[in-house]
Amino acid sequence: MIDALNNIHRARRLLDDPVAPPASAAPALGAALLAALAAVTMAGVVIIGPTVEISEPAIPLFPSA
User: What separation in angstroms does the CA of 57 have from each of 1, 25, 32, 54, 60?
Assistant: First the structure.
């Protein structure tokens, strides 16, 4: 009988709502940073435009041996 009551109390504790961690500003700041980075990247693409071509460098960066 005591084992059954202990199991019931344990099951009720497991079914209780978990305690939420305190709120943090880090996720909001990360999302804002990602949005700002995307906006700056899109603005750069619009400013450069489709007519700009990036040519190959004259000197190879990693010459083969």
Answer: 82, 43, 35, 9, 6
- Residue 65 to residue 45: CA distance in whole angstroms: 36
DSSP class of 61: S
Mean pLDDT of 48-62: 71
Distance CA(56)–CA(54), nearest Å, equals 7
Which one has a higher pLDDT value, 63 or 33?
33
The residue among 43, 23, 20, 40 whose CA lies nearest residue 32 is: 40
Q: How many Å apart are CA 42 and CA 40, to the nearest integer?
A: 6
